[in-house]
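G., the chain you wanted modeled:
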Amino acid sequence: MADLIVSGLISAKPLSSGVADTPQIQKIKQTAQDFEAVLLRQMMREIRNSVFSESNKGGSSAAYLSLADEQLANNMAAQGGFGFGKAMAQQMIQQVQAAQLINSAANAVKP
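Predicted structure as tokens:
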């Protein structure tokens, strides 16, 4: 059952577009993806703690489960995850583009 859930989550589209991105846009997308991985990791940790609270405390298996959660969260975020990273990246890119328009001398009204 877990395989079905994971495969459904990983099938989302990654953060990419058909146009070549500037280094600034690439950095925004990577940072948003990393942030989404952190959120997913925390969500999985809380789910695991609530589900296995009594039966799986401590030991070496807890360390392996933590590493597995981290890797799964990174893979999910790289594939699009729940879309948090993509939405954040789009908003930040729009803000950067708006700032460039505002600060552009070519777009200024000339007397």
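Helices lie at 2-10, 23-51, 60-78, 84-103.

Shout if anything looks off.
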